[in-house]
């Protein structure tokens, strides 16, 4: 488990299904991530994918738990997306973050993502990482900028444009 000022980051558990489903069935949240709400079955598949990634790679997406409330408020981490976007993208660990509506505007995405990147560097070594963000997702672009990500191209992914960003350690 990783502890920050306001959050705990931990591996996903079966008991996280309801929170993941609630977050990923919120159309406001999902508008930048495929544009549609996930069914409970799809949320279950998402959860099993999260757990499986840790087993295969030894890293993955953490569940974000708000210290004050104990509520699961998001996901953050680095993973291998195998998206097939380009060799320059697919050969690096991919960073991602998603927060439930009640966690927006509190700085949690930046806090959690910075902690996940520190953990990854400590356990897997400093290395280049990438992420993709829809051009109109200004909040996520701000988080990426705070983490040191810079644009290196744009591609079409799942029917819409995304900006490819990379973070190269000093």
Automatic annotation (TrEMBL):
GO terms for molecular function: acyltransferase activity, transferring groups other than amino-acyl groups. Coiled coil: none annotated. This is Protein N-acetyltransferase, RimJ/RimL family. The keyword Zinc does not apply. InterPro entries: Acyl_CoA_acyltransferase (IPR016181), GNAT_dom (IPR000182), N-acetyltransferase (IPR051531). Keywords: Transferase. SUPFAM superfamilies: Acyl-CoA N-acyltransferases (Nat). Residues 7-169 form the N-acetyltransferase domain. The keyword Manganese does not apply. Transmembrane segments: none annotated.
